[in-house]
Fold this sequence. Notes:
Layout lengths: L2 H17 L1 H21 L7 H15 L2 H15 L31 H4 L15 H11 L9 H14 L3 E4 L2 E7 L1 H8 L13 H22 L5 H18 L14 H7 L6 E4 L3 H11 L3 E2 L8 H9 L1 H6 L7 H11 L1 E7 L5 H6 L3 E6 L2 E5 L3
Helix pairs in contact: 1-2, 1-3, 1-4, 6-9, 7-9, 11-12
Amino acid sequence: GGIGNGLGAGLSLGMTTFCSIYYLVAGVLVAGLAAVYLAVRRPRRLVDRRLWWSLAAAGASFLLSGGVLVVAMLLSYRQAGLAPAHQSSYWSADLQAFLVPSWILAYGDWFAGISSRWTGNSAECSQYLGLLPLGLGVVALWPGSRRPRPWGWLALLLLGVVLSLGPHLHWGGRIHHQLLLPFGWLERLLPWLGLSGAPVRWHIVTLVALAVLAGLGLGRIHHRLLQAGSRRRMLLLAAIIAACLAEYWPRWVETRPLPRLEFCRQIARAPAGEAVYDLGDGNEALLRQTLHHHPLVGGYIARTSRRALDFLRSQPLLRILRGESSAPASRVLALAAGLRLRHLIVPAGRQRPERLRRLGLVLLAQEAGLQWWAIPW
Length: 377
């Protein structure tokens, strides 16, 4: 209770919003479950005025910080008709991933024959819990202590696992669509969950619960070793912590150079307002836009409206430039003039140069595996 504590709690949740909306939802879930637990265990607290003043202060400080972003997102969802960012059945955890080390770990290559079959990507779909942390969690739950066993944290861990599995069970890269999991029912009940499209990110709840259980297990080991010498006790605890760190040790981050393309500088000297259609990697297209400073057709953003997606998928000129249909050069130039689309950036080898020339485009430069074509309307 207390207004000060409420202000601090609300502000903490607000700052969490600016870190990640996924962290916010996970935090609200954990806080809600904790509130239900306390209400059942201590019902008299529900009539305490200090509690309600504290909750009011928490709500106010949250609304004045991260709540502004949440309200804007909800309004945008209702008014703009935002489309899901990802396909939830694809961006879900594989049941094997919780016990099999993945590519993101230093020794993950040893298990690549298994992890390479999972859906998603090798960074986000890495749910390995670790045998040592799990063992410490078992120690925390083992009977024999006078303290109550942390069943609540175990339940939270299992909840995180179930949610991160997504709407359908994944096993060895195969999606069993005939088996609908709890997240699938939640998607039907709460359509706005589709905005995330990545159930795998609920794994943060699993990790938080596992970290608490492992810490409690380590504390229990420390308590059991009180009779031993302090030096031996500290050496053993340090060895356990070091082993946990080794099990979670990540692989080196692989990087590659991002060239500052000369043709992007040439595009920058073109008349303002002429649009660019970049068919290369969406993230790198944004980087190239910082060099050429022109409007980008279909540029990558976190959430896109259904109307914008329909335009990108069905607009005749864009379909022609992607190679999905064809048209005479005169038609291509007229469509491009209407959109003020002048420049096309395409990875070399993606399309045959002869085809683009037949459409009326002119190749101006080729650099670092990319081609710059102009549409001379």
